[in-house]
Design a protein that fits this description.
The complex is a heterodimer of chains A (94) and B (309). In chain A, 40% of the residues lie in helices and 22% in strands. Chain A has 94 residues and is α+β, with helices and mostly antiparallel strands. The chains are: A alpha+beta (94), B alpha/beta (309). At the A-B interface, strand 2 and helix 3 of A face loops of B.
């Protein structure tokens, strides 16, 4: 099973088109291994991106450097996955 | 589960459990439900579609699919719930009975079986198919960018490592080709609804171009009615509009192709996450999500019945 410990999902708020373009620049940086759950669309539409543990600091620094607002939507993806698995196993056990 | 009455709709299930559910539903409703195999996946798994019919020959039909993006688990789970709901409501709910007395419903619950199996076995975040790309170490194609509608235009990626990789050619994915062949072979599908998650949107063509669809006004009005019906249950707010206007440019998408085939009522749903779970929506939200979505589906199906074309 792929492991998602330390992966975070950031919810990015883009105020205008230049900020949308800034986030699209991130999308092109393959080495960050970003997984856009909700891609860059229009100003005002939230952008959700799963960020691997090793890329979290770099991505946050990039966003802050360009005054792009974000919040942490999911603190640790693996923790949610574990909960999901537990729920399924509990069902099977029953 | 011994029957579809004891089947647990409030938990996520594996591919085998969903296929087992289908067989139980068919066995319990031989006069109403049948299971069609429309092809095999890249890795050789059968691709099943449930057919709900009360008779007739090649009646006008409604197509609903879930799970084309494999990680969007609430959609396959909702598809299972829809299947049971159809068998429960036929003969009970007058509106729905009228629909099924005149039209057939085709429901493909697991539209990307290889990807879905992979989300259970290896990578819960997997979205694409599992086909191998000769020119790359990256696997899979985005099955919602692989259709022959604006294929190759902006709004999809030519990079096999991208989550929106369109594939080497339109219909290159057998999971897509199987539906294309089925739709063309049937020839009388009047509504096509492809269900994704998440972001609470009801979308209609086009995704690959800004030009409004010829039926844009009717689709917009129908969308408004459908999202109003959806919100009436739990207050879940959906936005609606053309794909390119409501979110972004997306080429090679399912409903742009079905619309190009003359299927006027072509819609994509993006189901809830009302909170902060994204694709990891807790199982406790499966049934509420399916219930509210069903009200929107009923609105679209009833409109299709009452506006033959």
């Amino acid at each position: 099973h792929e492991d998602f410990v330390g992966h975070q999902v950031l919810r990015i708020s883009v105020a205008d088109e230049p900020q949308v373009q800034k986030v699209k620049e991130l999308e092109d940086l393959e080495h960050l291994q970003l997984d856009f759950w909700r891609g860059p669309a229009q100003p005002g539409s939230p952008i959700d991106v799963r960020v691997p543990f090793l890329s979290v600091q770099a991505v946050k620094a990039f966003l802050e450097a360009h005054s792009v607002g974000y919040e942490i939507m999911i603190e640790d993806v693996q923790a949610l996955l574990d909960q999901e698995q537990e729920q399924m196993f509990a069902f099977w056990a029953r | 589960a011994e029957s579809t009455d004891t089947f647990n709709y409030a938990t996520y299930h594996t591919l085998d459990e969903i296929y087992g559910f289908m067989d139980m539903l068919v066995a319990e409703n031989p006069g109403l439900v049948s299971k069609l195999q429309i092809g095999n996946t890249y890795e050789g798994r059968p691709i099943y579609v449930l057919k709900f019919s009360t008779g007739g020959n090649n009646r006008p039909a409604i197509w609903i699919d879930t799970g084309i993006h494999s990680r969007e688990w609430v959609t396959q789970a909702s598809g299972v719930w829809f299947a049971k709901k159809i068998t429960q409501d036929y003969g009970q709910d007058p509106t729905f009975t009228a629909i099924l007395d005149s039209m057939d419903i085709f429901l493909e619950i697991v539209t990307n079986p290889d990807g879905f199996a992979y989300t259970h076995s290896k990578n819960r975040m997997w979205r694409k198919t599992r086909s191998l790309n000769p020119s790359s170490a990256c696997v899979g194609v985005d099955p919602n960018r692989n259709w022959d509608a604006g294929f190759g235009m902006a709004g999809a990626s030519s990079n096999p490592c991208s989550e929106t990789y369109r594939g080497k050619s339109a219909n290159s994915e057998v999971e897509v080709r199987s539906i294309v062949d089925f739709v063309k072979g049937h020839g009388n599908i009047k509504a096509f609804i492809s269900i994704h998650s998440y972001s609470q949107l009801l979308l209609y063509p086009y995704g690959y171009k800004t030009e409004p669809a010829p039926d844009q006004q009717e689709l917009d009005q129908l969308s408004e009615s459908a999202v109003t019906a959806l919100a009436s249950l739990y207050g879940t707010k959906f936005k609606y509009g053309s794909i390119i206007k409501a979110i972004y440019q997306a080429s090679g998408s399912t409903v742009d192709w079905t619309y190009s085939q003359g299927i006027k009522y072509s819609f994509t749903f993006e189901l809830r996450d009302t909170g902060r779970y994204g694709f990891l929506l807790p199982a406790s939200q499966i049934i509420p999500t399916a219930q509210e979505t069903w009200l929107a589906l009923l609105t679209i199906m009833e409109h299709t019945l009452n506006h033959p074309y």
